[in-house]
Specification:
With 211 residues, this protein is α+β, with helices and mostly antiparallel strands. It has two domains: 72 residues; 116 residues, 2-Layer Sandwich (Translation Initiation Factor IF3), CATH 3.30.110.70. The protein starts with a helix and ends with a strand.
């Protein structure tokens, strides 16, 4: 009996059933010259189809278990990552920094070496109005920018200390860099590029414990 007729009679997928029957050594079948598969008629076709359906159901159940396990592992990984991120945020928030070399009430138990954090900001040059004067408050913008890049540099400094397993930074200071870049134009003139201000926060990463 042709597999397509079996599929039609028993309402199963002909393609899946044909692929399945070819893998079964206990059932007799033959392959036609045109590629079709004929199952020997002297076998219990209904029983064969029931076997096929059981295998399909078991395979579906295996896939579902595999999917559920993958979802469980993904959820556990996400939870672990969230917990690690929470612990890191708490550690960074509680990390002590000082320009000095000790903390009252604490003792240093480990020195992990020099670390730094950097940030920079570019600032457009001021322009002059038609009636004179400057159209940009350079001082205000600069101070605002310096506040932000100092904070970012300190945040990087803490990240570097955390990566070393430390919970404090001593001897913190700042280095500043100002660039006034310019380049020549095709017409032989000078093109003044935006100002660049950079800051580096330096320090030594340490581990401290309450005395």
């Amino acid at each position: 009996m042709k597999t397509k007729d079996i599929a039609s009679r028993y309402a199963v997928s002909g393609k899946e059933f044909e692929g399945w029957i070819k893998e079964r050594s206990e059932y007799r079948f033959s392959t036609g010259m045109m590629g079709g598969v004929d199952v020997a008629d002297d076998q219990d076709i209904a029983a064969i189809v029931e076997h096929f359906k059981r295998d399909l159901a078991e395979e579906a159940a295996r896939r579902e278990r595999s999917r559920a396990e993958a979802d469980r592992q993904a959820a556990e990984a996400a939870a672990a990552a969230a917990e690690a991120a929470r612990l890191k945020r708490e550690a960074l928030a509680s990390m002590l920094i000082t320009s000095g070399f000790n903390f009252d009430g604490y003792r240093i138990t480990k020195y992990s070496g020099y670390i730094s954090g950097d940030d920079a900001i570019s600032m457009d040059r001021p322009s002059h109005g038609w009636l004179g004067g400057v159209n940009k408050d350079v001082a205000s913008d600069l101070l605002s920018g310096l506040v932000q890049i100092r904070r970012n540099a300190l945040a990087e400094l803490k990240e570097a200390a955390y990566a070393l397993g430390c919970n404090a930074v001593i001897g913190v200071d700042f280095d500043y860099l100002t660039l006034d870049p310019e380049t020549a134009t095709n017409q032989g003139g000078t093109l003044y590029l935006p100002f660049l201000f950079a800051v580096t926060a330096n320090g030594n990463a340490v581990v401290i414990e309450p005395e």
